[in-house]
């Protein structure tokens, strides 16, 4: 993967270069000591990952990410800062950052964070490939592709990966988790997306009371959101919080739930159930490396 580094401290840039190069994490496609220069290079270099300092002259890191995201929607941003304020970390995540690293830079932490971001990028790219395959299958002779791959996709490993995610969210014991497994297994084996159907229609394939099944699924997904929000309140750097607050869930909604729990907001966070289920399917596909 290609990295672009931005920090007004040249020593930090050199340290990051050495870590990325020596540990075989990727290649450096560019560096800058201020946000404006970096922003000018992005369209040409098209980096996969940008590591940027929060506090810089001319343009701070958060402003840079806000301006760069529309230009590089598929690029991940890692932010560096000597300040560990929760408000600043929250602002970084809301701007679109994937991870937040506190200075002074630690080589082990930097490598771990980069590998997590690479995993997240691979998952997003897998999701896109899954969507492309779904579109291809729709145009293929009826049943041809499904017969060839359906039995393989729905496997012990795929189910196990989804169970692991539900366990990490703290909802594996919830009644709705069984319903979530049933729906995601069906989507995988039939090469379908939630955009092609409604949750109510899917639930009708498994239950004589689809409305009750749908309610159980929504309750379980919401419970996962609440658990994730509690993790974020305790530690913004929690691995589970960082990984799923921007993939299975929408960070803005997770933050809203966090504010509600703290008594700072009047509304709970909402779950986009279609995105939640599609992301679970993509995680299971990625873990089995079908498309990588």
Automatic annotation (TrEMBL):
Limits of the Response regulatory domain: 2-118
Q: Could you tell me which PROSITE patterns the record lists for this protein?
A: RESPONSE_REGULATORY
Q: Which UniProt keywords apply?
A: Phosphoprotein
Q: Which residues carry this modification: 4-aspartylphosphate?
A: 53
PANTHER family for this protein:
TRANSCRIPTIONAL REGULATORY PROTEIN GLNL, TWO-COMPONENT RESPONSE REGULATOR
Keyword Ribosomal protein attached: no
Domain of life, source organism? Bacteria
Query: What biological function has been recorded for the protein in this entry?
Result: May play the central regulatory role in sporulation. It may be an element of the effector pathway responsible for the activation of sporulation genes in response to nutritional stress. Spo0A may act in concert with spo0H (a sigma factor) to control the expression of some genes that are critical to the sporulation process.
- The keyword DNA-binding appears for this protein: no
Q: What is this protein called?
A: Stage 0 sporulation protein A homolog
Under the heading SUPFAM superfamilies, the entry gives: CheY-like
